[in-house]
Every structure is written in structure tokens, then in C-alpha cells.
Amino acid sequence: MVSVAVALVTITLKTWAWWLTGSVGLLSDAIESLVNLASAVFGLTMVTIAERPADEEHPYGHHKAEYFSSGFEGTLIIAAALGIFWTAGHQLLDPQPLESVGLGLGLSVLSSGLNGLLAWVMLRSARKHRSMALQADARHLVTDVWTSAGVVLGIALVGVTGWLWLDALVAMGVALNILREGVHLIKQSSEGLMDGSLEPEVRQTIDQVLEGFAHTRGEAVIIRFDHVNTRKAGQRRFVDLHMHMPASWTLGRAAALRTSVEQALMSAVPGLRATIQLLPSDVEAHFDDPRDLL
């Protein structure tokens, strides 16, 4: 909600700066802020959906809704980049003198400061809550800050050199920068929707917990784990595995150990959901067996 409010303020400031100066670079900056607003509104909607509890139609929850926010934001960024290229191309062929440069740059710097502060707060929140939507919005805001810095530098150079075509050239540079960010966000969103595995450091933590429960007696293996598979869906993390133990154990003893392993895993990795299948030590699961495909 704060992102939406800041986007409205920065759009006003940057549009005012463009109206005062006539700079196509500042116009490109204002267009990107418009994308910020649309992305923030859509992101707020997706975060709200992602917080919904699991139901009959979505037994694993709605956490993946955040990935749609990232993909939508990336698509808007690419569209904005193409529009900036089009506008800058015309300005490059027919450059126009700039007016009220000092005031225009001041407004641009003020809006960049607001975006920079918001991006810092959102990145901290994204890491805390493992939110893809917040991370995508924060990364876009960081890009916006660098974009504004480039625009300010370009307009300052126009004022010093008198080369009006620099304004359009800077706008094209801005378009290339946000185009790169748009492609990155779409790629990241696609990877999330395809159930990617957990980060290597998280998988290492899981392996360390399992090693703490594994047990051997001489050459005999009493407790072991295999077929460990992980995936992530928005804020939620999942691990599925097999736990092998002696066939002579009672079901109650085996279930008690499984509960201990699950609790240890979920304590070590926040937001983790563990699914453990109990198997006797002399039983193996063959997922690649052709009979499994029948």
C-alpha cells in the first residue's frame, strides 16, 4: 500500500518535471513510474490472494499468486521500454531545447530519493517474508533510481555541452536498462511457476538435519534417508523424502521418530512443510521402473 502511495507521488513529481523541461529523458522516467503504479496495484492484489488459507480447490494454498505479480510487472516494463524507444527516436531526429532544467532536475532527484528509501524497506521486508512480489517491486524501484540518476546526468550534460541529442540518447539508455530488468523478472517468475528446487544453502541445512537423525550400528544401517526432493511455491517451501528404519519397529515408534524429524526440519527452515514416507530398511522405491508409468 505504501508502494502505491509513493508511486502516485513520484508520477506527479516526474510528470511535472517533464512538463517544465520538455525532456524526453524525464518523460521516460515518468513512464517508468506509471509502470511502478500499475505493478504496485497488481502486486498488492496478488499478495492479498497469496495470503488466503488453503481450501478444497487449492489444498496447497495460494502462494504462487505472487509469481503472477512478478511476470505482470516484467511485461509492463518491456512495454514501457518499447514506448520510450519510440518517443526517443523521434526526439533524436528532431531535438528540442530544454527549459527550467534546474527545477525539473530537483523534482526528479526528490522522487528518486523517495523510491530509493521505499526500495530499501521493501527489500528488507521481502527477505523477511520470502515474498516474490515484494522482491520484484523492490528490484524495479532500484532500477528506477538508477534510471533517474542516468536521466539527471544526461540532462546536466545537455546543459553543459548544448548537445540536445544527448537527451534522447539517455532516454534510449534508460529503455535498455529497464528492458533488461523486465526480461529478468519474467524469467524469475517462470522459474517460480515451474516448481524450482530450494536454494543450495537451504538444501544443505536440510541435509545437516537429516544427518543428525541417521544412525548406523557397525555395518548395519538402522535409520537412513533417501529420495529427498524439494520445491518452493511463493513463501512456502516443501521437502518430500523417504525414511528407512528396521521392519521390526512398531508403527508408534516409527511415527514418533518421523514427528521428531519433521519438527527439526521445520525449525531449521522457516516456512518448510515436510512430507516423510516410512519404509522398512530392506525396501526400496524405484521411481524409474517402467511399471510405475502404467
Mean pLDDT: 76
Q: How many individual domains?
A: 2
CATH class of the largest domain: Mainly Alpha
Instruction: State the shape.
Output: elongated
CATH fold title of the largest domain: Alpha-lytic protease prodomain-like
CATH architecture of the largest domain: Up-down Bundle
Q: What's the total count of β strands?
A: 4
Strand order of the largest sheet: 1-2-3-4
N-to-C CA distance: 51 Å
Tally of helical runs = 8
Strand count, sense and closure of the main sheet?
Answer: 4 strands, mixed
Helix % is 55-70%
> In what range is the share of β-strand residues?
5-15%
SSE run: HHHHHHHEEEHE
Helix/sheet category: alpha+beta
Please explain how this structure is put together:
By secondary structure, the chain is α+β, with helices and mostly antiparallel strands. Helix content is 67%, strand content 12%. It has helices at 2-21, 24-50, 65-93, 101-129, 132-161, 165-193, 200-213, 251-268, and strands at 215-217, 220-233, 236-245, 272-280. The model is unreliable at 290-294 (pLDDT under 50).
